[in-house]
């Protein structure tokens, strides 16, 4: 399907133009993207290709994906809010024109502009892998005060709050529609905290954001990495990758009433359970599966597995083969 959608308090769209006739692609782009997230018009500068996930939340719009070269313009007739618009160029290049200035946005750079003023974004040949976000100024201004000093100023994405923001947005986009409305409400709060820090939050707001948005974003990013590796990481590995101390990481987990070791154990057990439940692994011994999941002690694996799932590894395998 060229467009798939989920409606509700967190409406989302997946747009893939390769599934559309070339003649229809620009109009669909204008309707789905240009009216949902940024209120812009679009003119292609070559063959049209877009693959993006768009999510509309109260006061917040998120679009992530890839696109070919476009001329994206925000004209007077389309201005209907004072939203702030963030463009992050993960790969590729773009040129932003706004407030009488022209600013290139290349690989790994970000730029913020005002949605209540005329602006232009020209995506360069080769296309763009991007994150676009729109923020309600009414919701953001208590955290940042006057946004003017941060507009049209290159914002680095290699570290700090902007890096946490991008990691957090990627993780919640991946989580998708499994999140509850309450979880999305919290996620929106954390995103506003992080973008405020990246732009230069007021002193009081920065203290709140560091204790709320930054902590949550770091913990989510760490959990995502542990999950991706099936729990096969040490505390020192994680600390090195995230440039934090192992002690601080352990405290992040303790703040949620759990521990780093328990979370990693759950991920290793989950990895083993998935392999035992998959008939494709029926020819492998339980010992081999336990070792691949990161367990060096088979007796400990069997005890931990039974505590977690209320069944032995052999029971889980037998049920999967029987079904």
From TrEMBL:
A Pfam family matched in the record: AraC_binding_2
Origin organism lineage: Bacteria, Pseudomonadati, Pseudomonadota, Alphaproteobacteria, Hyphomicrobiales
SUPFAM superfamilies given in the database record: Homeodomain-like
Protein name (record): AraC family transcriptional regulator
Keywords: DNA-binding, Transcription, Transcription regulation
Recorded superkingdom: Bacteria
GO molecular function: DNA-binding transcription factor activity; sequence-specific DNA binding
Organism: Mesorhizobium ciceri
HTH araC/xylS-type domain segment(s): 216-319
């Amino acid at each position: 399907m060229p467009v798939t959608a989920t409606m509700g308090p967190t409406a989302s769209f997946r747009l893939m133009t390769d599934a559309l006739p070339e003649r229809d692609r620009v109009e669909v782009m204008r309707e789905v993207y240009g009216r949902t997230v940024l209120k812009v018009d679009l003119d292609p500068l070559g063959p049209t290709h877009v693959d993006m996930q768009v999510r509309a939340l109260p006061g917040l719009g998120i679009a992530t994906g890839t696109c070919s070269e476009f001329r994206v313009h925000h004209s007077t007739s389309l201005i209907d809010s004072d939203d702030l618009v963030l463009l992050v160029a993960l790969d590729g290049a773009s040129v932003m024109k706004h407030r009488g200035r022209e600013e290139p946005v290349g690989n790994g750079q970000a730029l913020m502009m005002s949605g209540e003023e005329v602006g232009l974004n020209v995506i360069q040949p080769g296309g763009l892998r991007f994150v676009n976000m729109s923020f309600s100024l009414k919701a953001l201004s208590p955290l940042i005060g006057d946004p003017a000093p941060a507009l049209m100023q290159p914002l680095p994405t290699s570290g700090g709050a902007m890096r946490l923001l991008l990691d957090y947005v990627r993780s919640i986009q991946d989580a998708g529609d499994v999140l509850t409305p309450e979880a999305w409400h919290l996620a929106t709060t954390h995103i506003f905290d992080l973008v405020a820090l990246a732009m230069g939050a007021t002193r009081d707001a920065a203290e709140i954001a560091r204790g709320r948005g930054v902590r949550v974003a770091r913990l989510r990013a760490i959990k995502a990495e542990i999950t991706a590796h099936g729990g096969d990481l040490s505390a020192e590995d994680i600390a090195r990758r995230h440039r934090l101390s192992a002690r601080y990481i352990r405290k992040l987990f303790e703040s949620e009433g759990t521990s780093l070791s328990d979370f990693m154990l759950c991920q290793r057990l989950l990895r083993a359970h998935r392999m035992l439940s998959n008939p494709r692994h029926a020819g492998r011994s339980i010992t081999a599966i336990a070792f691949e999941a990161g367990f060096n002690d088979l007796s400990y694996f069997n005890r931990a597995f039974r505590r977690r799932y209320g069944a032995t590894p052999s029971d889980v395998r037998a049920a999967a083969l029987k079904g």
